[in-house]
Structure formats: C-alpha cells, structure tokens
Amino acid sequence: MPLLKRALRTIGAGYLLGVLCAASAIAELPENDVGGEASSPVTLRNGFAEHPDCPITASDWQTNPHRNFESLVFKEGKSFYSISTNMILSWYYSGPEAIIDSDDFTAGVFSGCFDGEYDCGLKSNKKLAKILGKRSSERKDGEEKYIRQYFSASPPASAIAATSSRLGRCFGDNPAQPPMEALNLVRVQISREQCYDLKNYPDAGAFAWQNFFKPGEQCKDTMWVPDQIYAAQIKAKKAEQVFASRPIEERIDGLNGCQIAYGLVFGGLNGRKTDPLPDEAITWALQYEQAAIDNQACPIMPEALSNWVQKQPLDTFEPAQDPFLFYLQRNMKQEKSFEEWRTFIARAMGHYETAADVQSSVPDEACEDFSIWLNQSHYAKITETRPERTFLYQLGGKLPRDKRQALCVAVPQSVFRDYGYERGASAQLLARMNAQDVARKKFFDDLEASAAPNKWKPTYKPEVRAPRCYRTGETQETCFYN
Predict the structure, then answer these.
(1) d(C-alpha 133, C-alpha 128), whole Å
(2) What's this model's pTM, rounded to 2 decimal places?
(3) Cβ atoms within 10 A of the Cβ of 170, count?
(4) Would you give the DSSP letter of residue 35?
(5) Which alpha helices (DSSP H) does 75-125 contain, by range?
C-alpha cells in the first residue's frame, strides 16, 4: 500500500495514475447476493405477480399519478425488443391507457409491430401504425378512440408467445406462454461472478431480459438464463482461457527488452502478483513513460530494479499499453484552450519527427489556409496510414475553426510540400518554409555531432528480438535470456 500511495502522489495525470485510480474504484460485489431466504413475491393491483420464471419485479412498474395505473412504458429500453416487450406487457396488465400514456418516441417504435417492420406476433394494421407514429398532440379524437378500442382486447396468443421468448413467463398463468425450455432459455448452475457478468453481453440477444435483470436481487445458485447470452459468456470465457495460456514467445512478440521490463514493473504497480517492488520502480516507470511519449531512448534502469525484473517469470506476463498511445487517446478526448492544443500537438508531432522529415511552424499568413486544407484532407484522405499525417488530418476534422490553427505549430516538411503543391502556394512562401527546415536540420545535425549528452534522437534502440535487452549503464545492457 505505501507504494500505491506514493504513486498517487508522484505521477500526476499520467498513465499509471489512470490505471491505479481505476483499480481502486472497482467495487466489490456484495457477499449476500446468492442464496439466503427469498422475499415474498409481490402482486400489483393490475394483476402482475412476481415469479421466479420472470425477471420483472414490482419495482420495475411505474405508477402514473394522473391516471392511477401501473405501466412499463417508461422503463428505459436498450433496443426495439425492450420497447416492444414493455408495451405489450403494459397492454396486457393495464389495458389501453398504458398505450395512450406512452411517449411519442416509444409509441413510434412500437408502431413498427403493426406495419411489418418488426415481428411482434401481431397482425399488420397500417391504420394503427400510422396513428401510433404520430405525435400524441397531433392525434384526432377519433384516432385516440381507435387506439382505445383496439387495445381494449388482450394481446393475442401469438404476441404473448413472441414477447415471452428469451424473457420468461411474465404473463401469469396465461396458457399462451410456452414452457420455459421452449423460450430459448436454459437452466444453469452459475457462480456469483458469472451471474453478475451476464449484464456484460448486450449484443448477444435477449435485450428485454437484460433490461430487467437485476443481479443484486436475482442471482441464484440455479437460474434460467437466455441461451444466447449464456453461450456468449461461455465462448468469452474459453477465449480468455486460451489467451491466458498462450506461450511466452507470443506474450513478448513485437516487444523489446525495455518494453518487457516496463510491462513487468507496470503490472507489479497495479496489483499483479509479483515479488515486492524496489523503491526505484515508480521513478523509472515514469521516466520510461516520458521517454516513450517523446520517442527518446529507454532510461537506464537501476541495478536493484533490474535484479527484480530478471527474477519475474514471463509465463504470465502481460504487456502494458504504449504510453504514447495512451497520451494521444487521453488528450484527444479532452477539452482544451488554443494554447493547450498547441502544446499537445507540438509534443505529439515531436514524437514523429525524423532527420529526413524535420518539422517547422507554418507562417502566420498561410496558417488559416493550411488548417482548412487539413480539415479537407480529413475527409479526402481517409486511406492515409502514415501516423503523423493521420494525426494531423484527424485533428483537422475534429478541432473547431477557432482552434484549428494550433495545427500550424509543428508540420513535417513533406506535409507542407504536399499542401504547397495542391494549393499552388507562392514561391516566396515555399522558400521561407524551406529555409526554416534547413535551419532546423542543421541545428539537429550539429547537436548529433557534438558531445552533448542529450541527443535529439538517441541512437540506443533495443531490438525487438532475442535476447531483448535494456540499459543498466551507459555502455552496459541486461537481457532476457529465457
């Protein structure tokens, strides 16, 4: 725990802090969710009764204080299937008033059950579909009367059967409901963890069931679960097992020694089971993150931390996210002032700069037109794969016009050359940019030729292959030989 506290004080808004805070925010599941004595089922005045074969509970129903009846029509739905289920169940238990009471959006979606757009087990009725598709304020008296007349009769058996599919038997003892085994549900013995995880498969079908399922109240040792959701969960668990058992060669594929070392340190700082970390771990990890963002050399690792790294097994190793990618993703989502965008863009573009394609600021007189060109390139050059150009084009499309000129702060020579060609830039402007590029190139060439300890782009780049090394001294490497 002291290490975690120290990390939170030291690392500011970096990648490590984001993960550490996320980990501390994960709430433990209650211990008394599974088993124990079940509370007595509740029966509402509209006739709905709670039942183990139905995920809907009395608390899901809402009472309209002006009309004095219970309804599900305002229950938030995740899809058409949820909305149609809410409407048909409300119709069954509360009659036409529940349909009339629905909001325009819900009624509009439900109209698809009557015009052939959706299969709800209801016969086509173009007139009713048209009325439900209108705003309630635009309906004529005769149209509301037609709604009331149609929904005065109970839903047909076909609608009850269709609504029950992958939901459960929620229509009391109505004989139109198929048995549970015929509703695409499966009865399983399930752990508490598995039960809570059922909410994590929204694309596996059974939307209505998920919309009502409340793990804290309804998780049992044995329960009915939609077959598609359970199958998706089992498939995901098997994929996790395959992923967790992959060999070391696959785990470290594409990584150099420094990246492996960072992954081990990062995992140790974020709760992965390891030997106790030495005190130097956080400082070195932060130095590595800054170096990765700026495309600088991997920092020299202290001996004590290197000894720790070498002792850690790699058979459970998991790579850490690239700090530079995290830096981009976090900043691209944040709101910023013009100057903050300039600072971010300058640093991000610096990561991509090379001696063969140096970067300069676009002159003020050309900046507005250049930013417009980037905005247009965002849409015209969607197949671009070079990362520095993708970054500029993406921001050209994202930034509002009053902040777009922040993109002029650091532009590769090749990008401005393309802009000049496509826009027919003047010879004077091109000559001015070329002079800036020549001066910048000379500055870096002189720096590389000097005895300065901090080169522009340090030459130490550990290879992404065996023996996968990292620096433990100015002229010393330590490698992974296993």
Answers:
(1) 8
(2) 0.61
(3) 26
(4) S
(5) 80-94, 96-100, 104-110
